[in-house]
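Input chain follows. Return structure tokens only.
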Amino acid sequence: LPESGVPQLVQPMIWDYAADLDVESKVQLVEKYRRCGFSKVWFASAFKGATGVNQSLTLIGHHLKNQLEWLEVSSRSPPDVLEGIALTGWQRYDHFSVLCELLPVAIPSLAVCLQALKNGGYSEKVKENVEKLLGMPNLEIDTFMR
């Protein structure tokens, strides 16, 4: 790969939407890309649409944990390697599937995930900020929002 010139033309993206990433294996993958000549990598997480083909409501806690795991991978990787995080929101699993987790029900998850990434973690202050931004008196992370 280093001799091909490809690492100077592209930046790989590592995708994983799980709430329990294998952080160590992701860190090793980043290091492997560096050894192959890639100076930058991207991570891809999800704020919705990655928990079931016919899921109607968004479980914020799952997606928040995914963001926090990616932040852990970032903190354990070389400081200059991460180019960015693509925060995805899938609408369907394939073109023959029904739509899942429509955007209106996922907006609280999007807000929580963005704030967690922006603030480098999740805290009561981040929760209060999201509640204020969305005009919600009680943001529920570990149950489906009503």
